[in-house]
Amino acid sequence: MSDDAKGMAPSRRQFLTGAAAAGAGAVAAGAGRAAAPDPLITEVQDWASGLGDGVDVTPYGLPIEYESDVVRRNVEWLTADTISSINFTPIHALDGTITPQGCAFERHHSGAIELRKEDYRLMINGLVDTPLVFTYADLERFPRENRVYFCECAANSGMEWAGAQLNGAQFTHGMIHNMEYSGVPLRTLLEEAGVSPQSKWVYVEGADASSNGRSIPLEKAMDDVLVAFKANGEALRKEHGYPVRLVVPGWEGNLWIKWLRRVEVMDQPVESREETSKYTDTLANGISRKWTWEMDAKSVITSPSPQAPVTHGKGPLVITGLAWSGRGAISGVDVSLDGGKTWQQARLAAPGADKALTRFYLDINWDGAEMLLQSRARDTSGYVQPTKAQLREVRGLNSIYHNNAIQTWWVKANGEAENVEVS
Ligand code: MTE
Ligand code: CO
Predict the structure, then answer these.
(1) What atom in ligand 1 is closest to the CA of residue 211?
(2) Which pLDDT band holds residue 210 (cuts at 50, 70, 90)?
(3) Which of 14, 103, 119, 364 has its CA 20 to 30 A from that of 206?
(4) CA diameter of the chain
(5) Which CATH architecture has domain 84-163+176-282?
(6) Ligand nearest to the CA of 107
(7) pTM of the complete model
(8) How far apart are CA 261 and CA 204, in angstroms?
């Protein structure tokens, strides 16, 4: 409780801090402030003395101008150009779990193309009884499912292998988004074409110049893969594969083919013909790690973090972040304030959902002393997110992909935060 609130009658105090206190228990009391002369309360403001916009001003709404810094950002030196490149979701500024499409990270190998629904075709060929071609309108006639899943690029946190590098959760962990997809199970379309008994793989490719062709085991294709055309209730945005993309739950983003145009059923993966497959991890002993499709459990504190410093000084502080696992649901998240020496269990905003982001909170009464903030995710398979040291022991320093190590933010006494490593 803040000093100035102490002298107030209980009922009044309750009024000022009631909402926060009710939700979060004891530590939230004191986040309100004592009533004092304030022109924002005592004077009539501009917005209350004129009229607002009419309902015909914004046929499709964008965020208000005051939120204009909550945008995707790219890192100029990371790639040679912005066409075959990546940008990052502003996870430090978001809450909840659903990523709005407008600020969800983009990864293209040959740019985001524009493809009209009328020009869209999806072919299923290869080891099938009847090769088929679907138009967009055809796809809309199959029974649909709605599912929320995260999509994480295998390169997420890839710059952090050798040491703390990028100063912000957006840049270290922002190659991720989480949307509600509406679409047709790939299984339904494959069954329509009739899969031959010797089939073991599907080769999937997009309509863009890169095509981003990848092989996926038939077992996964017949399990939970979706041919999706809506995200968060509306059409996919161009940059996420309009009009149709593949959703491959829990598996690395590279398999989530955008502008999906062809699924070829095969008896072997196309990549087995190449010397090294895409997204290979080189281990400490020089041996390569391939076929690493599932994204291991991972978490990050989104606030406070370098782009989201503590601006209100000591007292009630909401620590929050995201956790996810490609192998199931998040079963718990632990948070450390002292660089991993001691841990406390965070509060999950909702029970962990399968292969989707989980929001966690730890509501503390910050004493104003510096902190080494960490979060550690656990999933339903029993897996616990490793430290950087543990991960480097098996994977070395030369990896690029699949870095799911525990992240540390050094929150200083002045509330600023920095990306650091603890030994
Ligand atoms: N699909 C096509 N056709 N072309 C691409 O360049 N990039 C892949 C995948 N699907 C890509 C693609 C990669 S590496 C990732 S991480 C995801 O799309 C990113 O999806 P997003 O741009 O919707 O975030
Ligand atoms: Co990727």
Answers:
(1) 3
(2) very high
(3) 103
(4) 80
(5) Alpha-Beta Complex (3.90)
(6) 1
(7) 0.91
(8) 8
